[in-house]
Design a protein that fits this description.
This protein is of the alpha/beta class and 466 residues long. The protein contains 18 helices and 14 strands. This is UDP-glucose 6-dehydrogenase.
């Protein structure tokens, strides 16, 4: 299995497929990179001036390569046929029905991509699983491919999980802590690993490209996300102790994080982690443990999710209690709707859940986010799992063009996302527009609380008594 690569294809033009292939195209001018997707709308957006996702520096990378060695297309079959190596970057959401509902990963998109490859491939391919999957998914892909193989065609399936975080995707892709490649421990397997490694070696130091067996690689991705989510749930659990005792969670995080064995990153207490992956991947592992008859291990990781949900509820309950135990018909301003700053992505955003609790109490919610479009917010808040009264959402929710309008005649300001611009707002101007007493609930420990109290605000934050 000796292969020199000239054309590669990526199935799935999402948050991972788009940025990672744009960076590959930029760093490997000798490769032609085609990203394909079922969604014509998404592909049109990738080919337009307004890309389907917002990521700092993504525009410049795409513009530098698009039409030269980077192409976005709906012609999936042609993409597959021409490529020597194919990334599978499709979504792997949590199942919403059937066995493992609410926990197991739904692998139908992975399977259909694999079946498509088997159907149209006319020569041998390296198939690279980049989506996050349960352990042994590569084996399923391999089984589907070999059950449908055409004469003269061979496949090697590799695991190459992606570790980028949204909002910093391009920086993460350009300077990854490590690239992980899992393959079969055979001669052909290691040739395929070498071919994929060659792509990354265009810009990643060789010592940062780690190779291992396929199952370790698949599990390492779930493990990394579980450890990261666990750190947030651990500091958020501390924040509850801080609020009850008068300790300050930022100080505790600093003290703990200066231990070089623990390290300072990912210890910021918050209203809870969001994003498309932490919850999904931890639940995926919980389900895996249950299937492997490891109930104690499953329960251990389930707690990471439970604390996250508790944190969102706890934060919103404090809002209601502070506002004299009733928020019905009160106006409440929510600043930030994305699950973190520098992205327009709202998947599993804590803001959705905070708004849900506020709406359940009959509050009027005035929302401002610098990047999330109005329709996205409205559709998130009318999802079946968020409300059983979707018709009330347009009546109770107003999307505002800036923070000042969102604060108009409001009783409380709630910070849900740590956007930089919220630190430089004119809070005196905001205070003047609000009803008194004017409250601020800082769900991100983002603002200068003393300055706000000097203006006259009543301030509440996570993990700290003020
Ligand atoms: P996404 O929903 O943004 O994109 C997936 C795309 O795949 C969609 O555009 C969809 O139309 C397309 N698709 C699905 N089935 C297809 C098929 N059979 N043929 C062609 N196209 C198909 O998802 P994402 O956020 O890019 O995540 C993809 C995977 O990467 C997931 O497994 C996720 O867990 C993992 N991951 C995501 C991130 C992240 O930050 N979003 C980071 C690391 C890993
Ligand atoms: C996360 C991981 O960081 C990536 O390595 C991984 O590739 C990705 O999941 C994935 O598999 O999808 P992402 O979800 O994009 O990336 O963003 P993070 O920066 O990890 O933030 C996740 C959530 O945790 C956000 O809501 C963020 O606000 C919150 N967070 C993060 C905290 O509350 N405190 C922190 O200290 C850090």
């Amino acid at each position: 299995w000796k292969m020199t690569l000239s054309k590669i294809c990526c199935i799935g033009a999402g948050y991972v497929g788009g940025p990672s292939c744009a960076v590959i195209a930029q760093k490997c001018p000798d490769l032609t990179v085609t990203v394909v997707d079922l969604s014509a709308h998404r592909i049109d957006q990738w080919n337009s001036d307004t890309l389907p996702i917002f990521e700092p520096r993504l525009d410049e990378v795409v513009k530098a390569c698009r039409g030269k060695n980077l192409f976005f297309s709906t012609d999936i079959d042609k993409g597959i046929r021409e490529a020597e190596l194919i990334f599978i970057c499709v979504n792997t959401p949590t199942k919403t029905f059937g066995w493992g509902k609410g926990r197991a990963a739904d692998l139908k998109y992975i399977e259909s991509a694999a079946r498509r490859i088997a159907e149209v491939a006319q020569n041998s391919k390296i198939v690279v699983e980049k989506s996050t999957v349960p352990v042994k998914a590569a084996e399923s892909i391999s089984n589907i491919l070999s059950a449908n193989v055409k004469p003269g065609v061979k496949y090697q399936v590799l695991s190459n999980p992606e570790f980028l975080a949204e909002g910093t995707a391009i920086t993460d892709l350009l300077n990854p802590d490590r690239v992980l490649i899992g393959g079969e421990p055979t001669g052909e397997g290691s040739e395929a690993v070498k071919a994929l490694s060659w792509i990354y070696e265009h810009w990643v130091p060789k010592e940062n490209i780690i190779t291992m067996n396929t199952w370790s690689s698949e599990l390492s991705k779930l493990a990394a996300n579980a450890f990261l989510a666990q750190r947030i749930s651990s500091i958020n659990a501390m924040s509850a102790i801080c609020e009850a005792t008068g300790a300050d969670v930022d100080e505790v995080a600093h003290a703990v994080g200066t231990d070089s064995r623990i390290g300072p990153k990912f210890l910021k207490a918050s209203v809870g982690f969001g994003g498309s992956c932490f919850k999904k991947d931890v639940l995926n592992m919980v389900y895996l443990c249950e299937c492997l008859n490891l109930p104690e291990v499953a329960a251990y990781w389930q707690q990471v999710i439970d604390i996250n949900e508790y944190q969102r509820r706890r934060f919103t309950m404090r809002i209601v209690q502070s506002l004299f135990n009733t928020i019905t018909n009160k106006r409440i301003t929510v600043l930030g709707f994305a699950f973190k700053k520098n992205t327009a992505d709202t998947r599993e955003s804590a803001a959705i859940h905070v708004c849900k609790y506020l709406l359940d109490e009959g509050a009027h919610v005035q929302i401002y986010d610098p990047k999330v479009p109005r329709d996205q917010i409205m559709s998130d808040l009318t999802m079946a799992e968020i409300t059983d009264q979707p018709e009330r959402v347009p009546e109770l929710v107003t999307i505002c063009p800036n923070a000042y309008e969102a604060a108009e005649k409001s009783h409380a300001l709630v910070i849900c996302t740590e956007w930089d611009e919220f630190q430089t707002l004119d809070y005196q101007r905001i205070y003047d527009k609000m009803l008194k007493p004017a409250f601020i609930f800082d769900g991100r420990l983002l603002l200068d609380h003393q300055q706000l109290m000097d203006i006259g605000f009543k301030v509440e934050t996570i993990g700290k008594r003020l």
